Amino acid sequence: MALDPSFIGRTYPPTEPYEVGREKIREFAVAVGDANPAYTDREAAKALGYPDVIAPPTFPFVITYGAAAQVVNDPDLGLDYSRVVHGDQKFAYTRPVRAGDRLAVTVSIDAIKSLAGNDVLTVRGEVHDETGEHVVTAVMTLVARAADEAGE
Amino acid sequence: MAISFDEVEVGTELPAQSFPVTRATLVQYAGASGDFNPIHWNEKFALEVGLPDVIAHGMFTMAEAVRVVTDWVGDPGAVVEYGVRFTRPVPVPNDGVGAVIEVTGKVAALLEDRKVRVDLVATSGGQKVLGMSRAVVRLG
C-alpha cells in the first residue's frame, strides 16, 4: 500500500541531545579501519584547528538514523520496515562532529514517491549543537520494496 | 602534507585504495554504528530474505570510500559534502577471506572557495557498488 503523501513536509520534534564521546569516536574509527589521528589524538586534531578530536564523515549517521526512527516507526505512516533498503545517503557539513558535542536532530519528511510499486521515502535530519549552531544535514532515501505479488 | 587547490586540476587522480571486509569487520561495525540489522551478520536470515549472502552495511562501504578523500587531503573536516547511492550490495562470504572494496577517485570539478568535487568509484568483485559517489572538499 502506498504511503500517505500528506506526510510530506512533516517535521518531528527535536531529539534529546546525543552526547558525542571521544571513546565512541575512537570505536567508530577503529570499526571502519581509519587510522587518521584526527579521530583519536587531541593534539593532532588541534593542529588541524579543532578544539577536540573529530568524528569520521559518516559518523553522523549513527545519530541521524536513530532520530529517523521517529518516522520509520510512526504507526500513522505505516512503513513496512521489513522491506526497506537504504537507497542513498548524503551529508552536508557546516563543521565536523567533535567530541563533547551535544547534538539534537530535527527530522523532516522531504519526499514520498511511488516508483514501480516501491515506496520511496526521503528523510532529512538537521543536526544542531547545544548553542544552536548547525553542524550537519543528513538526507537519506529509504526504499520499501513492493510486496511480492506471487505471495510470500 | 596538505593538498593545495593550486596543485590540482580536473582529472587529477587520488591514490586508489583497497579495503578488505570480513564477517568480523561487519560485526565490529554493527557494534560501533548501532545498526544490528541481521542481513549484515546472520547468513540464514540474509538468504531467507533473498540476498546472496550476508552483505556489508552500505554505510560501511560509504565510510571506506571517503577514506580515499580524507587520506588524500589529510584533514577529514575539510569534507564539505558527501553523498552516495547504494546501487548493489557487497556480499561477504564466510570463507576467512571475505570481500574487498576497491575505491578510486578523481577530481571532477574545481569549485569556488578553493573547493573541489571528487567523484569516487567503488567496486567489489568487479561490480560497481556505489553510484553518484561524490565528495566536495575544501583544499588549502
TrEMBL record, chain A:
Q: Which GO terms describe its molecular function?
A: (3R)-hydroxyacyl-[acyl-carrier-protein] dehydratase activity
Spell out the coiled coil positions from the record: none
Family named by the database record: Belongs to the UPF0336 family.
Biological process terms from the Gene Ontology for this record are: fatty acid biosynthetic process
CDD domains listed in its UniProt record: R_hydratase_like
Pfam family name, one: FAS1_DH_region
- Domain FAS1-like dehydratase residue range list: 6-137
Question: Gene3D superfamilies given for it?
Answer: Hotdog Thioesterase
**Protein name (record):** UPF0336 protein ABWK59_14980
Matches recorded under InterPro entries? FAS1-like_DH_region, HadA-like, HotDog_dom_sf, UPF0336/Enoyl-CoA_hydratase
UniProtKB/TrEMBL annotation, chain B:
Q: Which InterPro entries match?
A: Fatty_acid_synthase, HotDog_dom_sf, MaoC-like_dom
Q: Where is the MaoC-like domain?
A: 11-121
Membrane-spanning intervals of the chain: none
Q: What Gene3D superfamilies does the record point to?
A: Hotdog Thioesterase (3.10.129.10)
Please give the GO cellular component terms listed in this UniProt entry.
fatty acid synthase complex
User: Which is an annotated GO molecular function term of this record?
Assistant: fatty acid synthase activity
Q: Name one GO biological process term.
A: fatty acid biosynthetic process
CDD domains cross-referenced by the UniProt entry: SAV4209_like
* Family in the record: Belongs to the enoyl-CoA hydratase/isomerase family.
- What PANTHER family does the record point to? (3R)-HYDROXYACYL-ACP DEHYDRATASE SUBUNIT HADB (PTHR43841:SF3), 3-HYDROXYACYL-THIOESTER DEHYDRATASE HTDX-RELATED (PTHR43841)
- The name on file for this protein is MaoC family dehydratase
